[in-house]
Amino acid sequence: MFGKNTKVDLELNRIVEQLIKTGGKEKILPIVQAGEPVLRQQTIAYTGQLSKHTLLKLIDTMHTTMLEAPGVGLAATQIGLGLALAVVEDHVRDDEDDPREIAEFPFHVIINPSYTPASDKTASFFEGCLSFDGYQAVRKRWLDITAEWDDEDGKRHKEQLHGWPARIFQHETDHLSGELYIDRAEIRSLTTTENLEDYWCNDPVPTEAAEELGFAL
After folding, report:
1. Beta strands in 55-155 (DSSP E)
2. Does the keyword Protein biosynthesis apply (predicted)?
3. 201 in a known ligand binding site
């Protein structure tokens, strides 16, 4: 359990309380954009630095902010906080033939997350980021991972993730080590979200066009 062998960091707790207040009654925080130093920092492991009351308020505010954006994940660094904490959530689409292998991914709080590949299989799809707003690019990621994390009660979890949930987990975990998806994306595939919807949305893996553009899928 968090807090069993650690004390609340009163100064950090105060800073987080002030951050939460900036979200107002709507509980929506501004999302920092690429170029902000916090997005490139290694986060500090969460060991109980916040009171349980403040932690739960922070989680609730991050969840609301993520859904409003809208997004399927939000790391603490994206609201300017250097703690190893993120929230994730996504749901099955109507299109059952989606090649991204989207699966139900209920709301999770992932604290001190890490992952390792569970196979040598990879998948490449367009990916976006709330902190690189308005753009998407093809990013290769592990198709299967072993994910580990602590929940808000300090309980450790270990789970095999596949397909789109695995991609979401990798994306948010990478945030907490100072990485953005664009760092390892196929740069020639970079497109505005508007152009992605106009030219690519009916074919998430446009292999022939991708070869013409010069990036591998």
Report:
1. 73-75, 85-90, 105-117, 122-128, 135-142, 144-150
2. yes
3. no
Q: Is 171 annotated as a binding residue?
A: yes
Reading the block at residue 126, the tokens are 């367009």
Please compute, for residue 197, the number of CA atoms within 13 A of its CA located in the half-sphere on the CB side. 6
Here the tokens at position 178 are 């100072």
Taking the CB of residue 144, how many other CB atoms lie within 10 A of it? 16
Active-site residue 101, yes or no?
no
- Domains: count for the chain: 1
Per residue in 158-192, pLDDT (tens digit) is 999 999 999 999 999 999 999 999 999 999 999 99
Known binding residue 53? Answer is: no
Phi, psi values for residue 78, rounded to 5°: -75, -10
Contact 77, 37 (CB under 8 A): no
Q: Are the beta carbons of 138 and 110 closer than 8 angstroms?
A: no
Residue 50 lies in a domain: yes
Which bin fits 14, alpha (ψ -120 to 50), beta or left (φ > 0)? alpha
pTM of the model: 0.89
DSSP 8-class letter at 45: P
pLDDT single digits (tens) 47-96:
999 999 999 999 999 999 999 999 999 999 999 999 999 999 998 877 66
Residue of 127, 152, 172, 186 marked active site: 172
Q: Does some domain include residue 5?
A: no
